[in-house]
Structures are given as C-alpha cells and as structure tokens.
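User: Fold this; tokens only.

Assistant: Input:
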Amino acid sequence: MAKAVWNGTVVAESDETIMVEGNHYFPPEAVKWEFFVDSPAHTVCGWKGTASYYDVVVEGETSRGGAWYYPDPKPAASDIKDYIAFWRGIRVSS
C-alpha cells in the first residue's frame, strides 16, 4: 500500500499506483481531495505531455505545486491520465 503524507496527514493512499520514472502515480479515487487546491503551474514533459499541479494544504502548511497530474497525456503516458504524483516535501512510502 503506497501512502502520500504531508504535514503528518495521509493525503493519498492506494495499492493500485502506477510507477513511472520512480514516482508513484495515485488513482484519483485514492486522493483525499479536501487537501488539494488548483495551482496555475504547468510544465511540459517530452513524452508525457503537459502536467498540471495542485497545492497540497494540511493544517495551514502548504506544499506549493506538491502534486501533479496529466489531464491530457500523450499516448505513451495514457495509463496515468488524471493520476496524481507527489514531490516538494510530500513523503511517499510503500
């Protein structure tokens, strides 16, 4: 079971993540959406496409752009469409 933890709180948990480039991508239904706020940030990956971001907020502590996902991935990354991955201090363990 993979877990994503920010500020001592589990913000996502699943035994059905997809591993891509060393990152767990969590299915949308495994995410606790009450901790997520849309971010205006976007980045581009050559083979996955354009990533969108969320800020993750728990008890007043914010990980800015701490979660990302691909709403419209390129065909090679279609398996992770809308799946959420984490960084910027959010600890993922399995």
